[in-house]
Amino acid sequence: MDEIVREALVKWPNVPHCTGWLLLDRRGNWRMRDEAAQARGAAGEPIRHVALLGFINRNYECDARGQSFFQNGPQRVYVELGYTPWVVRLAVSAEGPLVLSDQAGNAFEPAAAWLDDEGSVLFSDAATPARIAVLHDHDLDLFSAHATLSEDGSGGAFAWRADAMLSLQPVQRGEVAGRFGFVASPAALAAQGARGSD
Question: Does the structure show a pLDDT above 90 at 6?
Answer without folding.
Answer: no
